[in-house]
Hints:
The protein is about 45% helix and about 20% strand. It has helices spanning about 1-30, 45-60, 75-90, 105-115, 140-160, 180-195, 210-225, 235-245, 265-270, 285-300, 320, and strands spanning about 35-40, 65-70, 95, 120, 135-140, 165-175, 200-205, 230, 255-260, 280, 305-310, 315. The strands form two sheets. It has a six-stranded parallel beta sheet with strand order 2-1-3-4-5-11, with helices on both faces. It has a six-stranded mixed beta sheet with strand order 7-6-8-9-10-12, sandwiched between helices. Helix 8 links the parallel strand 8 and strand 9.
Amino acid sequence: MKRKIILSMGLMVLLCTMVFANGQKEAASQGDGLITVGYAQVGAESDWRTANTESFKSTFVEANGYKLIFDDAQQKQENQIKAIRNFIQQDVDYIVVAPVVETGWETVLKEAKEAGIPVILSDRQMDLSDDSLYTAWVGGNFLKEGQDAIKWLNDYVKKEGRANEELNIVLLQGTIGSSAQVGRTKGVTEGLAKNPKYKLLAKQTGEFTQSKGQEVMESFLKAYPDIDVVIAENDNMAFGAIDAIKAVGKVPGEDIIIISFDAVKEAFNRMVAGEINCDVECNPLHGPRVAEIIQTLENGGTVDKIMYVKEDVFDTSNAAAMLPTRKY
Ligand code: GYE
């Protein structure tokens, strides 16, 4: 009896899925004049990501001539691959991907190419053997961001008269294999290696999340009682690290210098409070940028393959003045 119920429930789920998929397919090719865009988003791991999702959801609306099919992959590549296959099945007009990691995309992108659907990459990059598998990419220059962080540190220690001091440094990395992690880690570690006074004690991933950032920082503080600098590859990990630092009775921003990436609003509050010393900006508002690429393509124009967004560096000296102007 139980088996029968389970079987018929299974059948119902299958039927519903088929009806739903069919409905979606019709919507995508309905001739309603709307451009259908499938966005394979990484997840909802950070404030940056939330701002990025919001940017797409507010740009790709019917009033602007779009229908958005949004998928949150919960930081899993296999979910993103599934989402892209769904978009292909629904015959969307454009596929946009913010790839969680750099590698492993060839097969599914070939499927999109065979279906004649242009793929636009946004935010993170892919490491592909064949660049014709995507039309364009727009995002931040992660390597430069990493380099900028160390440039700031160099200037800061000079200004503070600490240039001759040996500094113990730990690095909280983002999702390993994501281009944001790869670029920032490279910029940071290469920059640190140029100065023998800098001792990189440890680096470990905090998955770009606040809770994991806190957890890893707690273990760093146990293993290394004399940390001078924390570099967090995004703001949410920095927020977690700040909690961990406070919990051992130290003062973030004073006892331990904190450098972060993204520069979301809450990070500006933290700079104003003196808890984060420096924040390297990474702009998440890619919705309108991707829309512009699509409009150019729709009008038969050509677009640049690689488009870097301009980004700044902020610190406690200008955070208060900048805070009211921040958009995310
Ligand atoms: O720094 C982080 C997010 O890929 C640039 O992903 C993005 C990064 C960003 O989770 O907060």
